[in-house]
UniProtKB/TrEMBL annotation:
This is Ly6/PLAUR domain-containing protein 6B isoform X1. Its main location: membrane. Keywords: Cell membrane, Disulfide bond, Glycoprotein, GPI-anchor, Lipoprotein, Membrane, Signal. InterPro entries: LYPD6-like (IPR039457), Snake_toxin-like_sf (IPR045860). Coiled coil: none annotated. It is found in: Cell membrane. Residues 1-23 form the signal peptide. The lineage of its organism: Eukaryota, Metazoa, Chordata, Craniata, Vertebrata. It comes from the Eukaryota. The keyword Glycosyltransferase does not apply.
Amino acid sequence: MLPLRHALAVAVVHIFILSESWALAKNINFYNVRPPLDPTPFPNSFKCFTCENAGDNYNCNRWAEDKWCPQNTQYCLTVHHFTSHGRSTSITKKCASRSECHSVGCHHSRDSEHTECRSCCEGMICNVELPTNHSNAVLAVTRAPGTSGGPAPRLQVPGLPALVWASVLLLL
Ligand SMILES: *[C@@H]1O[C@H](CO)[C@@H](O)[C@H](O)[C@H]1NC(C)=O
């Protein structure tokens, strides 16, 4: 009787933790986004957050298209327009070629009182943040030339759902 009660208690605790993590799921951590396991179309293939004229960064990243970048692209590009008060007016993110990333940096347009900052980065869905000034509107290259990057490493740790199922199975 005791082991069963113990298992029941463990299951209840796990279900509680699980529902709590569901409640927190509204706050997506885009750094932890792992693309689904699908075959890479070619070596060093990668994905980018992709959106066009999104109103804010959350909605750009939230509804990003999940597809591989074409083979003639090397980087993820972010184009950020914002007002002098720092309010974002337009965010565009996409896969980009080397030439599209030559023009990174910020440019202030005097007549419209808007600033455009462009940044590029290298690596799987690396374009999470928005460029806002000259220190982050840069081309950030992480992969050393010549090394085979491949897809980002994926850790297959048993998550909370697995623990809950294990607990439920114990009860049966
Ligand atoms: C650039 O923006 C980042 C993020 O908003 C901020 O942390 C940093 O201090 C800024 N750097 C400069 C030089 O203004």
